[in-house]
Amino acid sequence: MAPSLDRPQTVNEFRDRPVSRRERAQKAKTDQIVNHVVGNPLHRDRERRLSVTDPTDAGKVATILQRMNIQTTECRLGGKGLSIDEFKLVFEKILGINNAERQIERLFKKIDTSADGFIDWDEFCSYMQLEYAEKEAVGKRGATIKFVIPAIQSHAAHREEIIRLRVLADGNLMTVSKDGQMFCWKAKDLTIDKSMRLGITEDRSKCWVTDCSIVSSMNRIFAFTGDREILIYDSVSLELYCRITNFESVPLRVHCYAVPLEGQIIIILCDGLGCISVLSIKRLADTIREWKNKTNDEIPIVTLSEALGSSTVKFFRWKAHDDWVTEVYS
Questions:
Q1: Which residues lie below 8 Å from residue 30, measured CB to CB, with a gap of 6+?
Q2: Helix, coil or strand: residue 214
Q3: Structural domain boundaries in the chain
Q4: What is the pLDDT of residues 178-224, one digit of tens each?
């Protein structure tokens, strides 16, 4: 039966009302922190310490809350809740706790944050939540770390997720993980032929690599990072050759086409916005050398807008998909 609109809800009516998913999640949390008032003797001749968050008898919580029935008392007293005498009666008559009047009064004052001589439902729930949060924090601080012995030994070359696997022109394999670790494997016995770390530059420690491509005909390695940039390496010396920065979005999937006779590289970049970009650089070696002379840096760093100032560089971008692109096929 639906509760009347001219009076507050009782505990049972409040519990049986339709609840949303968010309220169910909150209730699951509240069920953990609502524990009945109980006294546990530390020693026979000493006073018992009272707590409302002792989890030893959690199965009796619903019965105790129903007997305390703070919301019903609020209705009867015009929204005031339990008085100190009624609170003592709960412990002495309902919970069977006697000879602890001083501790009951102390507990009542802790819960009665408004200091009006009554405990309402909000004060009672707030106290239990704060008390449980404190107990949980103390438990976490006192938790001990346990190690599984013996430790699991891993001989994997990569420590992070592998983001790219490619077959090279000589038949060998290349793998790249998102931490920038790149390995070239011999096809015969899958032993490591050479390795290098992508994404590490002089002005920072490292960055996440989103994709990588090797153009064997031009001896170039193109690495694409989460910092919206392209790192160009020499595949023979494995040294960083150039950086093109400040792309509009992070390139997630890429593919490189080479036109060796013209020294041209065409890079197709796809991002998480569903956009496809095409970067074309003619006479790649001469263009990078030109950038190097302009910046007077050993490793030239140019933004995309600066690169477009060269007659050999062209860039196109358009929206092609409604979601991120997962792969580029040649």
A1: 125, 129
A2: strand
A3: 11-142, 162-319
A4: 888 899 999 888 899 888 888 766 555 567 899 998 888 888 999 99
Residue type, 187: A
Q: Locate tokens 């979601």: which residue?
A: 323
CATH architecture of 162-319: 7 Propeller (2.130)
Cβ(243)–Cβ(225) below 8 Å:
no
Beta-strand (E) ranges in the chain? 38-40, 49-51, 82-83, 118-119, 162-167, 173-177, 181-185, 192-197, 209-215, 220-225, 229-234, 240-245, 251-259, 264-271, 275-281, 301-303, 313-319
Contact between 181 and 238 (Cβ < 8 Å):
no
Cα Rg of the chain, angstroms = 34
pTM surpassing 0.70?
A: no
Distance CA(281)–CA(273), nearest Å, equals 24
Reduce the secondary structure of 144-197 to three states and give it as a string: CCCCCCCCCCCCCCCCCCEEEEEECCCCCEEEEECCCEEEEECCCCCCEEEEEE
Q: Which of 74, 77, 56 is nearest to 10 (CA)?
A: 74
The whole-number pLDDT of residue 137 equals 80
Which H or E element spans position 291? helix 284-295
Cα–Cα distance measured from residue 291 to residue 162, given in angstroms and rounded to the nearest whole number: 33
In contact, 214 and 166? CB cutoff 8 Å: yes
